[in-house]
Q: What sequence folds into this?
């Protein structure tokens, strides 16, 4: 396969490859950028691999930064852009299932491609537009399958995170997992427990947001990666994930907080169990907050009072999207949406009279009783028992005295 024209991100980096070539070394675009170019998808990361050793790369270019020299990576600065150039390498010994113990630099492109995870990630593209495809990755793109390079179990033994990567690429691209690759996933799924939670999370989030998340979740159950995910064992059940998968076949979340809400917040956990699960991951405060606050409502939306909804009105969009994906009864969805839209106030700050004003007018004195009074006012306004205007609030205050 040959490309006369390459995307602008790669075109801009071509002079780097040519400069390395002129110095007598090989250099190629490799990894995700070549896969995405062939698929016609946006390129977000340009990776270059070369037969030049790091010191040799540094001799060729004026401005370089040692970003990961022990792994063979040097960053070349060109027109304000930084390009990572990694020396061809083999990664032979792994003991921790994640990082190679020793990196051996080699001069051969095919050695470098051989260590990569999947055939669709093992292309190289030369500066003149030729695609090098030693592992039949083009055919796998056509067949829409994720297939490990060489012996699948070896690739997963080298790096157990690749098991999650297999599912995330399947989800993102709507590909299936090739049989031998699947068999190796089944065999080696327990090794996922050796991987840092942050790294699993990155892949899992991409899986959840992918176009074929439903299939990928079913795969996760099928090969039992589910049983080795972070969090407490057995909390997130196969039934829950399979049910969610069926829902995601039809509609998908547009944000990560909603994705996590669906995954953890609808798993019928008690609030203590949910907190534990949330702590098992390294989620942002925003995601934690959304899941914790909305979980009770998405689990029983028909029971949510106007007060419950008022308390989460800042998360209206997430809540309504979750209820839609969860196929909650239309009438309940409409009721929740209308209640949220028609709230008399959105926060205590919206009250027509605040604590300071009540004190000034001699209607209240500072202290715990004032807090109590304001809560009562807020409550009455939210429940539409009291109009949110100064006159009505004054009268209410006198009444409850
Ligand atoms: N565990 C891993 C991670 C990466 N790679 C190789 O390194 C390349 C770059 O990795 P990365 O940037 O993590 O992923 P991409 O494939 O580029 O995918 P994306 O950028 O879309 O996440 C991959 O294509 C693959 O060839 C690998 O073999 N094993």
A:
């Amino acid at each position: 396969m040959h490309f006369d024209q390459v995307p602008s991100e790669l075109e801009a980096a071509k002079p780097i490859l040519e400069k390395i070539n002129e110095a007598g070394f090989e250099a190629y675009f490799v990894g995700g950028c070549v896969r995405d170019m062939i698929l016609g998808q946006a390129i977000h990361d340009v990776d270059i691999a070369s037969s030049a050793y790091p010191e040799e790369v540094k001799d060729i270019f004026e401005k370089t930064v040692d970003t990961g020299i022990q792994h063979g990576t040097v960053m070349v600065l060109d027109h304000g852009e930084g390009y990572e150039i990694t020396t061809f390498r083999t990664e032979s010994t792994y003991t921790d299932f994640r990082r190679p113990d020793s990196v051996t630099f080699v001069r051969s492109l095919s050695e470098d491609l051989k260590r990569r995870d999947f055939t669709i990630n093992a292309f190289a593209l030369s500066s003149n537009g030729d695609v090098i495809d030693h592992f039949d990755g083009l055919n796998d793109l056509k067949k829409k399958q994720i297939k490990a390079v060489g012996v699948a179990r070896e690739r997963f033994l080298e790096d157990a995170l690749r098991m999650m990567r297999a599912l995330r690429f399947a989800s993102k691209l709507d590909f299936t997992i090739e049989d031998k690759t699947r068999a190796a996933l089944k065999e080696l799924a327990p090794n996922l427990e050796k991987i840092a939670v942050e790294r699993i999370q990155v892949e899992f989030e991409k899986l959840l947001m992918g176009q074929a998340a439903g299939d990928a979740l079913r795969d996760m159950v099928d090969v039992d990666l589910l049983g080795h995910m972070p969090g407490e064992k057995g909390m997130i059940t196969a039934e829950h994930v399979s049910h969610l998968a069926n829902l995601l076949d039809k509609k998908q979340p547009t944000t990560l907080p909603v994705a996590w809400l669906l995954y953890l917040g609808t798993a019928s956990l008690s609030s203590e169990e949910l907190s534990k699960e949330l702590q098992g991951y390294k989620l942002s405060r925003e995601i934690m907050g959304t899941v914790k606050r909305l979980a009770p409502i998405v689990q029983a939306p028909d029971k949510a009072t106007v007060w419950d909804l008022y308390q989460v009105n800042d998360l209206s969009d997430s809540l309504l999207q979750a209820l839609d994906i969860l196929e909650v009864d239309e009438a309940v969805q409409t009721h929740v949406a209308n209640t949220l839209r028609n709230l008399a106030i959105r926060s205590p700050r919206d009250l027509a009279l605040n604590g300071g004003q009540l004190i000034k007018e001699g209607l209240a004195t500072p202290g715990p009783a004032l807090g109590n009074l304001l809560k009562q006012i807020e409550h009455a306004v939210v429940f539409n028992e009291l109009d949110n205007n100064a006159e009505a609030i004054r009268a209410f205050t006198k009444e409850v005295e």
